[in-house]
UniProtKB/TrEMBL annotation:
It is found in: Nucleus. It comes from Paramuricea clavata. The keyword Lipid biosynthesis does not apply. This is Cleavage and polyadenylation specificity factor subunit 3 isoform X2. InterPro entries: CPSF73-100_C.
Length: 208
């Protein structure tokens, strides 16, 4: 019902939505956006905010985040230095701390976890962080940075790199990424979309 019923279902086409019960035996599948129209419930947005202890320089943190992704925007909020990473996670410099904020959903939470990992690594041993540069256009650098991003996002034990391929395991699902052709093989559409976004972002940064 609702917007889900605007197109008739076809064989093999996936239909997803919210299953609601009305009365004793009536069940309806509706789109999340139709929830206020057919129920007394309403959808809402959850904003996450964490304050992380950090004693290093903000410029060092900026540099290390650039090794993770080139999708970083420098901002200034009422005199405070800020960074927007992946276009969804905002970092604000504080006194011996960094505040990270993002709108909660499955994809944004994944990006926030990756950013949080970098902050904790830099704060634990800033002297060990080497200011390295990379040559744009090298697929080897692209592969190294992609492996690092995937491990920080999905866990070190779930990512393996062999020759020109990277494999990712996620519970009952798995994915295979060809670092030369950028082809991604994964049966799960949601995971495939997340991996494709990562590969495309990193490809633009490394010019490969």
């Amino acid at each position: 019902m609702g917007s889900l019923a605007s197109e008739p279902p076809s064989h093999g086409k996936k239909i997803s939505g919210l299953l609601i019960k009305r009365g004793f035996n009536n069940y309806h599948l509706i789109a999340p956006g139709d929830l206020p129209n057919y129920t007394d419930l309403a959808t809402s947005t959850v904003s996450q905010r964490q304050i992380i202890s950090y004693h290093g320089t903000f410029s060092l943190l900026h540099h290390c985040l650039q090794q993770l992704t080139g999708d970083i925007e420098q901002l200034n909020n009422q005199g405070q230095s800020c960074l927007k990473v992946f276009n969804v996670v905002t970092l604000t410099q504080g006194k011996d701390s960094v505040t990270i904020e993002w709108v909660a959903n499955a994809v944004n939470d994944m990006y926030a976890d990756a950013v949080l990992t970098v902050i904790l690594q830099v704060d634990s041993n800033p002297a060990a962080v080497q200011m390295t540069s990379y040559k744009r256009g090298e697929t080897g650098v692209f592969k190294q940075r992609l492996v690092k991003l995937l491990k920080e996002t999905y866990g070190h034990d779930n990512v393996a790199a062999r020759a020109d391929q990277i494999s990712v395991r996620l519970e009952e699902n798995s994915a295979l990424i060809n670092t030369n052709t950028k082809e991604i093989k994964c049966e799960d559409e949601f995971i495939h979309g997340n991996l494709l976004a990562m590969v495309n972002r990193l490809s633009r940064v490394c010019d490969v």
